[in-house]
Amino acid sequence: MSEKHKDTDPQETQEWLESIDDTLEEHGFDRARFLLEQLIE
């Protein structure tokens, strides 16, 4: 990871990644993609 994108809070990042994984398992790719698209709009 470059300095420009240094992870300043690895614990929070891990929590987000786990949440995304849980969403994928429980609700599928389409739901996870929808949520991520909402975040970047």
Low-confidence residue ranges: none
| Most strands sheet | none
What integer value in Å does the Rg equal?
12 Å
**First-residue to last-residue Cα separation:** 24 Å
Summing up helix and strand content along with how strands pair, one would put the structural category as: mainly alpha
Please, what is the average pLDDT?
A: 94
DSSP helix count?
Answer: 2
Order of helices and strands: HH
Chain oligomer state: single chain
Which range best describes the helical content: under 10%, 10-25%, 25-40%, 40-55%, 55-70% or over 70%?
over 70%
How does the overall form come out from the CA principal axes?
A: flat
Tally of DSSP β-strands: 0
Tally of individual domains? 1
**Proportion of residues in β-strands:** under 5%
Write out key terms for the chains shown:
41 residues; mainly alpha; 2 helices; 73% helix
Q: Brief overview, please?
A:
The chain has 41 residues and is mostly helical.
Describe the structure.
- This protein is an all-alpha fold and 41 residues long.
- The two termini are 24 Å apart.
- The protein is built from two helices and no strands.
- It has one domain.
- The protein has helices spanning 10-27, 29-40.
- The model has no long low-confidence stretch (mean pLDDT 94).
- Helix 1 (10-27) crosses helix 2 (29-40).
